[in-house]
Amino acid sequence: MENQQELTEIIDKIHACEQEIGKAIIGQRDIVRQVMLAILADGNVLLEGVPGLGKTQLVKTISNVLSMKFSRVQFTPDLMPADVTGTNLIIKENDKNTFQFEPGPIFANIVLADEINRATPKTQSALLEAMQEKTVTVGKETYELPQPFMVLATQNPIENEGTYPLPEAQLDRFLFKLNVDFPTKEELKAIMDVTITNRTVELSAVMGGDEIIKMRTMIKDMPIADAVMDYALSIVVATHSELSEAPEVAKKYITAGASPRAAQAMIKTAKARALMEGRFNVAFEDIDFVAYPALRHRIISNFDALSEGISNDDIIREILEGIQPV
Fold first, then answer.
1. Quick one: pLDDT at residue 197?
2. Looking at residue 145, what is its pLDDT?
3. Residue 218 falls inside a structural domain
4. 207 and 229 in one domain?
5. How far apart (Å, rounded) are the C-alpha atoms in residues 257 and 299?
6. Residue 208 backbone phi and psi in degrees, to 5
7. Cα-Cα-Cα-Cα dihedral of 52, 295, 218, 66, to 10°?
8. Residue 249 phi, psi (nearest 5)
9. What pLDDT was estimated at residue 1?
10. Which domain holds residue 248?
11. Are 8 and 91 part of one and the same domain?
12. What CATH number is attached to the domain comprising 236?
């Protein structure tokens, strides 16, 4: 692992990124922190919230502050997979026809999949390979995506007309699902000061792609105590109602529990949070912090939960309260 001075410089840069993003994004500090965790942990993020909360602006701001290539795809019902991945074009040279691959908008460092649930399942599936393997296959050729690469997708929870809910397999590819809440009255006033006046926000690039890749390598090398690892795994196992040792809340409200990817997500992002907090060891509180965004989209609750107004976050909270770190 790097020496103390270099680690301190890295932590300062991460905090500088958050401060710079805060110039253009009013409030939403937890959301910014969680997106930064996902970036450092090499994962994709699903942002859910009603229209107008600045989800798209957040992604654009992050790409500017991190000085990485940004691409936006507006998902609509008529969007085709080739509109995302790219396609082979016929090029005529010297009276001969040859195929040339024209990359689609997926070939960027940060890809914003806006209103992802408005596209058909066929188009949604075009993202699966990119999100998991960081490659795109067109015809018989496979193309590597630029590194670092991540997908930040948005969806509207209240719009049902013309939407196609994401299948569980695709939801599982998202490291985090973040719920973007409506701002407070004070935050709303600050938003008005920025958006309906002549005031402009100048953003500075703080980090580049090479630095992100270096930080990801460092996070992977960070040790985690067996007790903390066991705590994270116990939380994931507790979401499976079919197991005899499952807690009562799982048996009562959960139809299907979290996958092994949930455990991977929690451990990777807990390491990233420890680094951002200036610590080089993972604590139980890091696991608690990342449990909600890592699990809320990987748990399928039943009708009883819906009828009683029990959210996935409520279920996660009760599971966490029932597991005592050793």
1. 65
2. 92
3. no
4. no
5. 5
6. -115, 175
7. -10
8. -65, -35
9. 47
10. 223-322
11. yes
12. 1.10.8.80
pLDDT for res 225: 93
Q: Give the type of residue at 155.
A: Q
| Structure-token match 């942002």, residue found | 47
Same domain? For 248 and 182 the reply is: no
**The tokens 């040339």 sit on which residue?**
100
Burial class (CB in 10 A: 0-12, 13-18, 19+), 217: exposed
Report residue 222 as tokens: 């960070």
- Positions in the chain whose pLDDT score sits under 50: 1
End of a domain among 188, 212, 236?
212
Q: Which residue has the tokens 């090398």?
A: 221
**Token digits for 152?**
């930040």
Structure tokens at 121: 């399942």
Tally of domains in the chain = 2
The distance from CA 190 to its chain's CA centroid, rounded to whole angstroms, is 26
Last residue of a domain, one of 212, 236, 263: 212
For residue 137, the model assigns a pLDDT of 85
Confirm whether pTM is higher than 0.85.
yes
